[in-house]
Amino acid sequence: MRTLFSDVTAVTMDGERRVLPHAWVSVEGDKILSVDLERPEGSFDREIPGAGMVLMPGLINAHTHIPMTLLRGYGGGHDLQTWLNEYIFPAEDRLDARCVRAGTALALAELVSCGVTAIEDMYYFCEDMIQEILAAGLNANICRGTTCFEHLERPEEYQPCRDLQDLTERYHGCNGGQILIDASIHAQYTSFAAPNLWEYLGRFAADHGLGMHVHVSETQLEHRNCQRHHKTSPLRLLDSYGVWECGRGIAAHCVWCSDTDMELMRKKNISCAHNPVSNLKLGSGIARIPEMLKAGVNVALGTDGVSSNNSHDLFEELKLASLLPCGVHRDPVAVTAMQALEMATVNGAKALGRHTGSIQPGYDADLILVDFTRPGLIPCHDVVENLVYSARGSDVRLTMARGKVLYENGSYLTLDLDKIRWEVEHYAMPHMFG
Amino acid sequence: MRTLFSDVTAVTMDGERRVLPHAWVSVEGDKILSVDLERPEGSFDREIPGAGMVLMPGLINAHTHIPMTLLRGYGGGHDLQTWLNEYIFPAEDRLDARCVRAGTALALAELVSCGVTAIEDMYYFCEDMIQEILAAGLNANICRGTTCFEHLERPEEYQPCRDLQDLTERYHGCNGGQILIDASIHAQYTSFAAPNLWEYLGRFAADHGLGMHVHVSETQLEHRNCQRHHKTSPLRLLDSYGVWECGRGIAAHCVWCSDTDMELMRKKNISCAHNPVSNLKLGSGIARIPEMLKAGVNVALGTDGVSSNNSHDLFEELKLASLLPCGVHRDPVAVTAMQALEMATVNGAKALGRHTGSIQPGYDADLILVDFTRPGLIPCHDVVENLVYSARGSDVRLTMARGKVLYENGSYLTLDLDKIRWEVEHYAMPHMFG
Question: Does residue A162 sit in the same domain as residue A186?
């Protein structure tokens, strides 16, 4: 299958961060074939006219828990402990595989319609999620978030570790790399009793070429408790057990990370998955992103689970990732539009270990068309400014992942929205909430 | 004309803040006629089915400069002074009436599609704006932002004051109250040379029953300079010249207002028009909204001009108005979803002096339908949580102002989008930017 995007404005996110006003971008199979300023030779199975459209790399959501979409807005208006203990945890206890599939499919519909082509997800019922994702067609790094509240004799026999072994064997790299498996410690404070689990998972990730995804210093309480008990930060405590030796870490949140933590992140290629909305909504605080960028940390962007967002529209995060530091530092260029766009594209690709996030020959054909003829995107003095500050997920006209169109003009090509709605309303909701 | 919304979920924003799951709301002429839990008797010219839809009051944008939509994204990526002096001011110098009309119409298209039914706008070329607004059909309080950099002998003869006299006479209350005129001092620091202008405008507003709209303490520099030169804040300095005597003030931004300022705001019914996005984007800071609410100040919500936002989607402000204080105070209930929704509806109505912002018999029929069948609004555990944290302007299916449908299913009924695009692209852009 060969597809040609004709005469589009291409935001390449290549090394020179070029914006090409009249570009022809061709796709063959699941890869970008060419980027030209003239129509390339040869014939194409489909030609997509690009007038008024901006073609950019699909967005990368570097931290989410997609089945939690079923909990959108659930238990809102309460303090954090009440919300978790009386709402979220009991609801999650009632999840079954079919609920997870329904929540996953619903999330995928929202993600794809908002221009997301790759996610990094930490949850459980991973195989059910993977089946839905394979059918939907977008890229996903999936990890089984591992908690442990007791001492373990043999971590390799602990069920979540068995799950990881099994997932890695069966799905890591499957369908030409559509699915990657990462290792995951849910967080230091949810596995404090089993440091040998940390050692095991760190080694497993390194041995199998997986990334390592951990919630790190999300709240001040978590960061301080670790500091008090262990005289070091969660990030560094885990490091002392070899957790980051795989060479591709994802530390979600990092709201309370210190300068020393940032130095370690840079050295060991631990990306920060920044979740500005969730950090505000849960009252966690505001991550020190300009400091991280200055320290050379790779900062990617995530929504976190919809239960604490309450949306999967990464365009919102894009805007806030730039604006929040501008307000906090009272500096209108504290984080520029381009820096925010990098977080959601090239930096996300680096965090996920994927050849995506940029429009260049040989890269995965993960591409979206944003409709710049909509009133909210007129006029266009600067394409990147409009993308970051004016565009919304709903301005996405077409989403392509791995060379395949998943969504176009409001219609889904791989997902059945009516069926998804039915499953959520008639199975998942009654099952979970009576 | 009698219209019936059938079997909708109605978010009333009445005194009890009721959410009615199966409601029938009828409209006659430009007013809400009834709100029932059963189908009302009588016949209707049109019946709008409400299944899956949420009916809520149209949103109120309490601070904007709509012609500046022409400057969306213009000069981004620069510090504040460069942005203003090298980009915004020179571009505004090149505005003419036709550009203003094009920019106004473009803004109205964006506003109406995002569910805004009333605005409070400060700019110049007011008559041109009013003509476009009258045709478009939404409600507007219009004021001529008055600056003055020289001493005035007779303020009543100063051109902006003559404009105000003229606008008041010709348009205040016109078309059944669709247009209201307010008085306006652009800001204390842009009129410091003419305190007798302040006296004049304060008296004029009081004498003619107008509101008074002023930029107040937007930046620390502005606030500190006033404090240094006058030993008091901008808000109180203006008060000593009778500026707020009209009894309905709108103080835009209020980022640096003190507790004493807030006390005065409560006493004299000066609403804060809170612009969270713009305050972040320009590096102005983060307004102390929980403190204002505690002090009893009426807080309304605005986008500010699109040049510093860069969107007119008030749903974004709604979300941020709640989330920002939660993050800053590390308290997930610092400003609740309902408090944010009040800002954009009932509080906005109070700021504008309008009988809108609530679904009650006798109120202006300013109503919007939000499509809760979209993937981003499923499931719905709590209607208000979904409206504030999950909905976007693009989820608005229908916008009615003063009983008339202005926008429905992506189509405009009073605006010609193709013509607007043409005017922006072929007249305004070449005229202003060569």
Answer: yes
